[in-house]
Amino acid sequence: MVITAAAAYIIALTAIRRTNLFAIMSRAACAGFALALLCGVAACATGPAKSDAQQQADRETAAHVQNALDADKRLYARHIFVHADNGVVRLTGFVWDPPDLDEAKTVAGLVPGVSRVVNDLELERNGMDDSGVTR
After folding, report:
1. Cβ atoms 67, 95 nearer than 8 A
2. Do the strands 88-95 and 80-85 form a parallel or antiparallel pair, or are they unpaired?
3. How many other CB atoms sit within 10 Å of the CB of residue 62?
């Protein structure tokens, strides 16, 4: 059986087309897998919506912590903001004295219903944000 040049060319062209089709299908499969993985991660990253009762409990916890901070005679808490989420309290804002950083965390941790305190307070030194003790 003799293969002519035209037949050899057709066979080679068919092999190339199959290789390109395989490469395209492989890329499409990888892209599909990546998309499915991304959707799964996004679905797991968002939790269920809070009920009205949970939101109210968070507001009450934040208010109790804010009241405790305001009532502390050693702490100037006017610039401290309280956020609560299922018993975890986050303090933001700033204080002027280094001991106030720990005092605010201690006072917040003593409030009933608080399971953990995240202290994101910053130390403000005479209006200079770039001082050596500013966090």
Report:
1. no
2. antiparallel
3. 20
**Average pLDDT over the chain, rounded to whole?**
79
pLDDT at 134 (0 to 100) = 47
Q: Are 88 and 95 in contact (CB under 8 A)?
A: no
First to last CA, the chain: 84
The kind and range of the H/E element at 117 are strand 116-119
One-letter amino acid for residue 52 of the chain: D
pLDDT at site 54: 92
Q: Cα(46)–Cα(120) distance, rounded to whole angstroms? A: 23
- Classify 99 as helix, strand or coil: helix
CA 30 to chain centre: 27
Q: DSSP string of 68-94?
A: HHHH-TT---TTEEEEEETTEEEEEEE
The answer to whether 104 and 80 are in contact (CB under 8 A) is yes
Which tens digit of pLDDT belongs to each residue from 29-85?
A: 566 666 766 766 666 666 678 888 899 999 999 999 999 999 999 888 899 999 999
Tell me, what's the pLDDT at 11?
Answer: 66
